[in-house]
Model the fold of this input.
Amino acid sequence: MTTEEASPEHPDGDRLQKVMARMGVGSRRVNEDLIADGRVKVNGELAVLGARVHPGIDEIEVDGVALSSMPDTVTYLLNKPVGVVTTAEDTHDRQTVIQLVPDEPRVFSVGRLDMDTEGLLIMTNDGKLAHRLTHPSFGIEKEYLVHVNGIPSRAALRMLREGVELDDGPSLPAQASTVAPGMIKLTIHEGRNRQVRRMCEAIGHPVRRLVRTRIGPISDTRLKPGSWRELTQSELLELQRAVEPR
Ligand code: URA
Done:
């Protein structure tokens, strides 16, 4: 993979030493020393200080060991509450998802949810898994319960299913069904910025409340907002199966 194939989740990439810290290698300072000492490679090339990388896309090696294959990977399922941001650090001092899970080993969120969106978020230090879960080519399903203004007609739901015009191109085919008046279940395979909100806006039914209820095979109706748990071995296997290249 090259840095040109950037994930839409991380358009500019993050500083290498920061990504390494998040993946549990060491503090930023230690990582800077590792880079300066020529012990770090990105996509097989010797890394330079200040390089930007795309977590989960670029292959990072320390002393010849790929970070994604390091032991002790952990994968959590978090029920993100409203008002918490998905970025690793927030310049406005808002609570971040990182603060809701254990400090060690350092994990990062797989994709993003808007501050106002609730629901399931996977957090891991497994770069390869994160990459596969977010990269559009793997097309992992994300299911949302969407409370909208008004009551979408059958034609409006059909538009959601067939694809609506967005400013960054039409949405791909999706599944959409009515759960209750003004409440729809929408399943998409993409992860564009504010995609569900923009799709619903495009059909004239702005979102009032947005809850992610499933990521591929992973769902949990009992996990309380603000709580997290580790994925079970069988969930991890199902997830691995869901992101196997076809
Ligand atoms: N779609 C959105 O609009 N927001 C999210 O947080 C996730 C999907």
Observations:
- Residues 11 and 54 are 8 Å apart (CA to CA).
- The first strand starts at residue 14 and ends at 15.
